[in-house]
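Quick one, T. Sequence first:
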Amino acid sequence: SVGAAAGAPSRTLSSLAPLLQPPLPTTADAVLSGVINVVACGYLGRLALAWLGCLPLAAYPIRMHTPLANGVSLHALLALLVAGGLCAAQSLRRLAADDFAVWRWQRLEGGY
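Structure tokens:
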């Protein structure tokens, strides 16, 4: 179990899975924001790979005039990987903050 402190609820990996699933957008603003964020995540992944020296910025450009739109699949994969990593990091940060809040209030109520 993860974060099993005295008196804290026991958490297993299967109970953490819902935290890693973001809610689906329901308004046009949320959809537009999601599209912009996915494009930004793709570019961020591209910049990170260029900074690490793994993939130069000039390699695999998006060419929409070709029949298969070369480069789109690489950028889509990078966008999904970066967005998934950011979502997982945010969920783990939220989990740590929630556990800290429970621990802190237990200490205050317990009179330590």
